[in-house]
Amino acid sequence: MIQLTGLTKRHGEVLAVDDLTFTVRPGLVTGFPGLARSVSVARHCVRSVLAAAGHQNVDGALLVVSELVGNAVVHTVSGLAGGLVTVDIREIGQNMARIDVIDQGASTAPQVCESSDTASSGRGLRLVEETAVRWGVRDDSLGGKAVWAEVLTTEDTPVALIDASIWAVEEDAKA
To answer: What digits encode the pLDDT tens for the residues 15-55?
Structure first.
């Protein structure tokens, strides 16, 4: 069980979370609105929960939660008005965490895509695949999908390296 006290998160001038205190028990899910700004709030909560539990390197977990929550918001019913994305954080020993992101359903199943060097999207699940020890998709009992990933959280855990060419493409587009 992990206890968080006094969690605060700002988005620029906007106060998104103020002095939030909660307890995270294994299997307990936390819901976020199906909005793009929920990605950073979910990431902040995951960072706080794992750090409070003593995990040393949570960068991989943060990358995974960013990609999975972002995908749920963009590609599923969760991203529609009133939609919800749920995040379940579980420890698997002292050096690993499992993150499940549960959406409200979609007409397609999550899968790794092949994207071109010039594409501005389509790399999310590839990053999850490169970062996680294991990952997968399962049906949720309420009709959605749960995409899960198990991520190492030791000090020397490498995080997936993003091909630098995608940044060059973005810079070229700005010029």
So the answer is: 766 776 766 655 555 788 899 989 988 998 888 888 888 88
Handedness of CA 26, 16, 120, 117 (dihedral sign): negative
Whether 34 and 12 have beta carbons less than 8 Å apart is answered as no
Q: Which residue has the tokens 């390197």?
A: 57
**Edge-to-edge strands of the sheet including 29-33?**
29-33, 84-91, 96-102, 145-152, 134-139
Task: Say if CB 114 and CB 129 are below 8 A apart.
Answer: no
Residue 100 pLDDT > 80, yes or no?
Answer: yes
**Can you tell me the distance from the alpha carbon of 163 to that of 160, in angstroms, rounded to the nearest whole number?**
9
Q: Is 121 exposed, middle or buried (0-12, 13-18, 19+ CB in 10 A)?
A: exposed
Decide which of 3.50.50.60, 2.170.190.11, 3.30.565.10, 3.90.550.10 is the CATH code for 2-174: 3.30.565.10
